[in-house]
TrEMBL record:
Record's keyword annotation contains Nucleotide-binding: yes
Single Gene Ontology BP annotation: asparaginyl-tRNA aminoacylation
SUPFAM superfamilies, alphabetized: Class II aaRS and biotin synthetases (SSF55681)
Name of the protein described by the UniProt record: asparagine--tRNA ligase
InterPro entries cross-referenced by the UniProt entry: Aa-tRNA-synt_II (IPR004364), aa-tRNA-synth_II (IPR006195), aa-tRNA-synth_II/BPL/LPL (IPR045864), Asn-tRNA-ligase (IPR004522), Asp/Asn-tRNA-synth_IIb (IPR002312)
GO cellular component, one term: mitochondrion
Keyword flag Ligase: yes
């Protein structure tokens, strides 16, 4: 019955209700230029969670039980005075009864009956709530009279409600008006155990919120981060689809490890011991190699999908993939989690230059999308996290990329180390994250593309340059973010690829399928990957990747 009433109310409004729940999303009210004031008088049904509550009590009117009925004149003030006098004399009357022996066991029927017949009705009150439903930053002010709520029903922070009423104008401080909902029907109350509710305090630090990953989406900060994350994912798919890339799903479990990383998760299977009670078979993931199990050869959780993506690029042309990648790094870092999401792009018939150009356009399109489509969330995060973040994103859209070879980057860093008398970086060494960030933040003060790395610093499949020492790989480094994109032109010559596999001592048999792509219709191709979680960090201005991943997995922490 209540749901039918809610449906009827929602269908008669000029606002379009959400198709699958017949409630109006708050963003359709609050994201208007006037904050929704043009909707005054509209009847709506909204649902959401209480962000804050305040009770405004009205002056109580004492009366004698049964003295008058609704609709009749209220008792005179002299009656009220008599009641107050009687209430104040009850302890004195009990003393007299006790002296006369009129009570037994601490009970005094006469005075008890007198006290119960004289009472004060619970004073009427108005509850003013700030309610959010996750669709936007702003909350809707909701006004509920106490007569609508069940007795002793407190609408604490975290309570879920579905209410119906009329939108009206409410005056606030500094002469401004806001829209509010005057409730006349209460359809649902989802109570909260306030004493154990993690968000009962007004401000909870981000590191503390990580202990309640299932509850922290109720906070405004995490909601804004997740909406921006969603926008970035949508923007990534939009760019790829608009430029003719096809989405391909690559495997999470793989027998090859393209990055050559030793810090990887091994996937095995666990079976009940012979004679033991049968247990359900389950996958076991560890970072220590174990005996052969479910699969015929050692298997791992993938750290990169580019090798598998190549096979589809060499058939469909231009492809991309979006999914989780895994690294079993033992150390803790604000930039690392065991499971992180990555966008990988592969282009057939293209060389390193084309991949760099595509990566630059891709990065700029993501920055532009956030600026143009997440203004309210960015405004909120700018107030809470980084005041310059929106301007920084805008500057990335308009910026040019400084392109330097590995050797040129090394020379620039050497000049700095000479002045500071730090340890010199020798040619052939891997540029650390600190080295790369220094190039973008301090030396060039703009996004930097570093290319042509020593072959020892990159995976075996990267195309060998003519000098025989460097390979066609690149990193895109962004101020205040570090390395966001890595890419390469991959080796299409089977003889050189075979030589590289032998040089690195890799198991050639595991890569026979990969060599087949060179045996049968080989073509030049290139691609790149963007660490998606780092892009969310960059867009929001946060510092720890665990604060932008819905359910982060890190060493010793996987509770969900």
């Amino acid at each position: 019955m209540e749901s039918e009433q809610a449906t009827t109310a929602a269908s008669t409004t000029r606002l379009s209700p959400f198709k699958y729940s017949n409630r109006v999303l708050l963003k359709t009210i609050l994201d208007r230029r006037d904050g929704g004031l043009e909707l005054i008088g509209e009847r709506v049904v909204i649902g959401g969670w209480v962000k804050s509550s305040k009770e405004v009590r009205k002056e109580p009117v004492p009366h004698i039980a049964g003295d008058y009925v609704s609709g009749e004149p209220e008792p005179r003030s002299d009656v009220c005075c008599c009641i107050e006098i009687l209430q104040s004399r009850i302890p004195f009357l009990r003393t007299i009864v006790k002296v006369l022996g009129g009570g037994s066991g601490g009970h005094y029927p006469l005075t008890d009956k007198l006290e119960t017949s004289i009472h004060t009705s619970p004073p009427p009150s108005t509850v003013v709530l700030q309610v959010g439903d996750g669709s936007c930053v702003a909350n809707l002010q909701v006004v509920i009279e106490s007569s609508l709520t069940p007795p002793c029903q407190l609408l604490h922070t975290g309570t879920c409600i579905i209410v119906e009423g009329l939108l009206q104008k409410s005056w606030v401080l500094q002469g401004k008006y806001v829209i509010e909902l005057k409730v006349d029907k209460l359809h649902h109350i989802g109570t909260v155990e306030y004493s154990s509710y993690p968000l009962s305090k007004k401000r909870v630090p981000l590191d503390k919120l990580r202990e309640f990953c299932h509850i922290r989406p109720r906070t405004t900060t995490v909601q804004s981060v997740m909406r921006i994350r969603n926008a970035l994912e949508f923007a990534a798919h939009t760019f790829c689809q608009n430029h003719g890339f096809l989405s391909v799903h690559v495997p999470i479990i793989t027998t090859t490890d393209g990055k050559g990383s030793s810090e990887k998760f091994h996937a095995t299977s666990h079976f009940a011991a012979a004679g033991a009670k049968e247990e359900p078979k389950k996958a076991v993931v560890d970072n220590v190699k174990s005996s052969e199990g479910y699969f015929s050869s050692p298997t791992y959780l993938t750290s990169s999908g580019r090798m598998h993506l190549e096979s589809y690029a060499c058939a469909l042309g231009n492809v991309y993939s979006f999914g989780p990648r895994f690294r079993a790094e033992k150390g803790e870092s604000p930039k690392h989690a065991a499971e992180m999401w990555m966008i990988e792009v592969e282009l057939a018939f293209s060389e390193l230059e084309e991949a760099i150009n595509c990566a630059g356009d891709f990065f700029k399109s993501l920055c532009k999308w956030v600026v143009e489509n997440c203004s309210e969330d960015m405004k909120f995060l700018s107030q809470r996290i980084d005041k310059t973040r929106t301007e920084h994103l805008q500057s990335m859209v308009l910026s040019t990329f400084e392109r330097v070879s590995y050797t040129e980057a090394l020379d620039a860093l050497k000049k700095v180390t000479e002045k500071k008398k730090d340890t010199m970086i020798e040619w052939g060494a891997t540029l650390t994250e600190a080295n790369l960030s220094y190039l973008a933040d301090e030396i060039y003060k703009k996004p930097v593309i570093v290319y042509n790395y020593p072959k020892e610093t990159k995976p075996f499949y990267v195309r060998l340059n003519d000098d025989g020492k460097t390979v066609a790989a690149f990193d895109m480094v962004v101020p205040k973010a570090g390395r966001l994109i890595s890419g390469s032109q991959n080796e299409e010559r089977i003889n050189i690829l075979t030589t590289r596999i032998k040089e690195l001592g890799l198991a050639a048999q595991q890569y026979e399928w990969y060599l087949d792509l060179r045996r049968h219709g080989t073509v030049k191709h290139s691609g790149f990957n963007l660490e998606f979680d780092h892009m969310v960090l960059f867009a929001t201005g946060l510092n720890d990747v665990r604060d932008v991943i819905p359910f982060p997995r890190s060493r010793g922490k996987a509770n969900y």
